[in-house]
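<given_protein>
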Amino acid sequence: MYKKFNVAIIVALAFGIGYSVNNIAISDTNTMVAVVDTTKLITNSADVKNLKTEQQEKLKQIQKTLEKAREEISKETDPQKAAQLEEKYRDEINNQKIAMDENYNRKVKELDNKIHLAVTEKAKQLNYDLILPKDIVFWGGTDITSEIEKVIK
């Protein structure tokens, strides 16, 4: 019985010492935290501005196709041919829209990857342990948005 009691005390002391050493080791770390304003990066990005212009041009093309379709369908007197024209233009407009959406999604993904890569490389270069979006941080962290902007432009 006395041996079991001694073993229990030794185990408790070992646990207490180990826990204390662990807390001391953790409390001495100096975590470097930075924030990045992703909204600003996206808003000021030349890629986003080019993408918006490109999207507007594609919307104009779709609008022209739609106007052409209305004109041709309204001139057609045969209901069967009018239905065929309508189907033809519906498919053409749908294909244009699908192509526009796929292009948009691909370019947004490329931009997202470009920003992610720039943030990762800058974090490693400046020895940051953690990078957070600025809009979720109330206080603290070094703002490195301008440094990331230089990289992605």
About this structure: The beta strands are 33-36, 130-133, 142-143. The radius of gyration is 31 Å.
